[in-house]
Structures are given as C-alpha cells and as structure tokens.
Amino acid sequence: MTPKAQQEIENADVVVGYKTYVALVQNLIKSTAEVVSGTMGREVDRAKIAVTKALENKNVVVVSSGDPGVYGMAGLVLEVAAAEEAPVPVEIVPGVTAATAAASKLGAPLVSDFAVISLSDLLTPWGLIEKRLRAAAEADFSIVLYNPQSEGRKEPLIKAYEILLKHRSSSTPVGVVRQAGRHGEQSVITTLDRLLDCEIDMVTTIIVGNSKTKVLGGRMVSPRGYNLSC
User: Fold this and answer.
1) pLDDT at 152 exceeding the cut of 90
2) How far apart are CA 183 and CA 185, in angstroms?
3) Which of the listed residues 21, 50, 83 is the one where a domain comes to its end?
4) Residue where one domain finishes, among candidates 31, 59, 83
5) Which end of the chain, N or C, is more open, meaning fewer C-beta atoms within 10 Å of its C-beta?
6) Closest Cα partner for 11 from 112, 25, 23?
7) Residues 68 and 160 in one domain
C-alpha cells in the first residue's frame, strides 16, 4: 500500500471492508475505531454503511485490495453516494494494483501497451469477457488476467487459454504470480502452451506477453522499441 493509504487507515474512525482485506490491515487500525467487515457479495451493503457513517461526520475508510479504482470499491462508493444524494466528500487513495505488483516480480512485461481483463463472470457476462479477450489478443497487447481460477470455476481460464493460443505463439512468455506483495508470494515464468500446468487460483495474477516479449536473464521484457545501437 502507499504511505497515504496507511495514514488514512491509522486515522480512521470507521474501517469498512471485506473481512480478508480488513484482516490484512488489522495492525494499522486504532483500538477505538469501529470495524465493519463481511463476506464477498455484500459490497453494496458495505458501501451503504460507509456512506451512512460518513454522514454522521465520522472519518470512514473503505478498504480494497490493490488499488481501489481497479476492480475495487471506489466506483461503488461513488455510485451509492450519488444515488442517496449524500453530501459527503469521497477521496480515492491510490494503491498498487496486482498488475504492476506482479509485473515488478517478473521483470518488465508491461513496458509497452497492455490490457487488464478479469476472468470472473460474477458481474460481467462471459460473452463480453470473451469479446474483450479476443480483441486484446488480436491487437497484440500484453494481457494481464485477474481472478483467473477458483476451485469451482476452472472453465473460464481454459477458454481464455484457447483464445490466446489462436492469436499468440505457443512459446509466448507468460508470468504467473501468486500472492503478489503478500506473505507467501510465488512467481514463475513459463510459456503459453504450459500455462495450465501452473498452480493458479484467485490470488494469482497472470501476465501474457505480446509478440515482442522475451525472456532476458530470467526476466520477462516487452521492448518499447528503443534502438540499443545508438
């Protein structure tokens, strides 16, 4: 997290968030702060609670993992505040999203243009996810995949793998990072054809290189096109 995010959590009167994320910052929450945590799927309820607490003139922090504006709570809080016509100031405090955290562990795979796509179809229809995957693959973006696979949801990654193989060489470098920036972090660089052999779950971030991506000294690099002979 950024120093600004840490400071806001330490100064909060109320901390709201998914229980797993709240647990990760528990040591930063002051003893007098009220903590509102819950399960996945109750995001709207938590956003409404946060707005209600803010209307009571309390300093409220809504915790997301990574960056709150990347598959996080920032948009939902703004939507709820607008829908309820709540006159509360909302500040979005940036963090480090999994894409850039994972990229730093792998080398420099996102130095050129890239796309970020979540494979979770809980809030986005799978047909739209497929359309975005094909477009990004055809356009030769480096591609970051969030929420790739869970115990009960393996088909989306298999379908994404098949789509990518239609547009990328099987030898395309691929980086797989679990728990980026957290305890137990693991990373491996492999090739597209061996992607499904890796250990992949919901705390895994996958980065698929573009047609120019290569492995140099054990690190993924997507060149921007600089002339090294100058």
Assistant:
1) no
2) 6
3) 83
4) 83
5) C
6) 25
7) no
Indicate whether 78 and 108 sit together in one domain.
no
Mark out the alpha helices in the chain (DSSP H runs): 3-11, 19-24, 43-55, 74-83, 98-106, 126-138, 155-167
In 3-state terms, what secondary structure has residue 185? Answer: coil
Position 230 pLDDT exceeds 80: no
**Two structure tokens written together for 174:** 């691929």
Helix axes 126-138 and 155-167, enclosed angle (nearest 10): 30
pLDDT in tens, 177-199: 999 988 899 999 999 999 999 99
- The upper half-sphere exposure of residue 117, i.e. CA atoms within 13 Å in the direction of its Cβ, equals 25
Same domain, 119 and 62: no
Does 179 lie in the same domain as 76? no
The confidence score (pLDDT) of residue 177 equals: 98
3-state SS string for 49-87: HHHHHHHCCCCEEEECCCCCCCCCCHHHHHHHHHHCCCC
Q: What's the pLDDT score for residue 147?
A: 95
On whether both 119 and 36 belong to a single domain, the answer is no
Q: What is the pLDDT of residues 197-207, one digit of tens each?
A: 999 999 999 99
Taking the CA atoms of 71, 127, 194 and 107 in sequence, report the sign of the dihedral they define.
Answer: negative
* pLDDT score recorded for residue 127: 96
Token pair of 26 as six digits: 């528990």
Q: What is the pTM for the complete model shown?
A: 0.93
Q: Where are the alpha helices (DSSP H) in 139-199?
A: 155-167
**Residues 188, 205 contacting (CB under 8 angstroms):** no
pLDDT at 39: 85
Task: Tell me: do 14 and 125 sit in the same domain.
Answer: no
pLDDT at 203: 94
